[in-house]
Amino acid sequence: MVDSPAVTATESAFVFWSFVVFVFGAVVGSFLNVCIHRMPRDLSIVRPGSHCPHCGKPLRWYHNIPLLSWLALRARCAFCGTAISPTYFIVELLNAGLWLALWLKFGPSPELAVYALLISLFLVGMFVDLEHYILPDEVTIGGTVVGVAFCVALPQMQGASDWTTGLLRSVIGLLTGGGVLYLVRWFGNLMFGRKVHAFEKGVSLVLDKARLQLDDHEEKPEEEAVKDVLTSKRDRIQFQATSGRIGEQNLAGLLVRITKEDLTVGGQRWTLNEAPRLEAVAHEIELPRDAMGLGDVKLMMAIGAFFGWTAVLFSLVLSSLLGSVVGLLLIAFRAHQWGRPIPYGPYIVVASFLWIFFGTDLTQWCLNFPIH
Fold first, then answer.
1. What is the mean pLDDT of the chain?
2. Are residues 207 and 354 both part of a single domain?
3. From 165, 173, 204, 301, which residue has the greatest number of CB atoms within 10 Å?
4. What would the pLDDT profile of 320-369 be if each residue is shown by its tens digit?
5. Running DSSP on this structure, what letter comes out for residue 260?
6. CB within 8 Å of 276: residues ≥ 6 apart
7. Do 77 and 121 have their domain in common?
């Protein structure tokens, strides 16, 4: 039996547009690499143009062809020969492949455009979190705002027939996402929010006018406001000084405690704004630690804004499972040390992607699963 010309033309058109979606996804993936590199460094994503981050030389157009240039250059800069991270290739391939998967699932539809935008946005957050342990507000807060806007314009994303219901379900979703994960974070901080760190060479601490600088002699010290380091009333920095001074007083052997509001040295107490300059050295220091970053909370808000509260619960359960399994495997293969932080954002992102493609079917299957 010979296919009709109409069927052949339709199949050819589908293959052609599949190719276009893949190529365009790779091109956008190339731009995502710019965002991943520059956003956490507070650099413009527009200027200057693409260049080697090592030698600074501008790339020529043929050095910037998605996927192909990385392969042709054998993962090295054409000018200085510095190795180019495989992350560049992976991001381009992931964005292209996921866009193609969206096209195959949803075809030419509004959902295709919305989910393509969400996937690209979340890929930026995922790879920034993997490298820097932060989730940019442009991804989380921006994703939440965009999610609400799309649910108003396309209420069918929330299974609604009018924009008011779409808006209501989106707001309920973001409040559920933010609220549930904030409670998880709060409880985790209550249980595991402090850790004593030992420094063989000692750590230097300077507190001056409510600004704090810690120097462990391994990385360049950065000065931060105390309120940005100690974000809750329970948080504190505490240590026994081996040397140092506060004003004219010798600190050796004294217990120092810094909270969000005050400084206590031995039996003396000052508010942070009135405290004299403190310079101290210690070999053990108790520092606050977050069981989960606020960025993860805001990321779950974005998921709720796009998909509603059911997606929040799905993503929370699945991301927790994925994070536990991968974390234990990394520790078992000695690729990660027990007690060191693991970014949670990438697992939330993976769970949200699985929701897009399989969430409804998996949820229905779980609800109908026979229990004997």
1. 86
2. no
3. 173
4. 899 888 878 877 777 655 656 678 899 999 999 999 998 877 777 766 65
5. S
6. 246, 247, 270
7. no
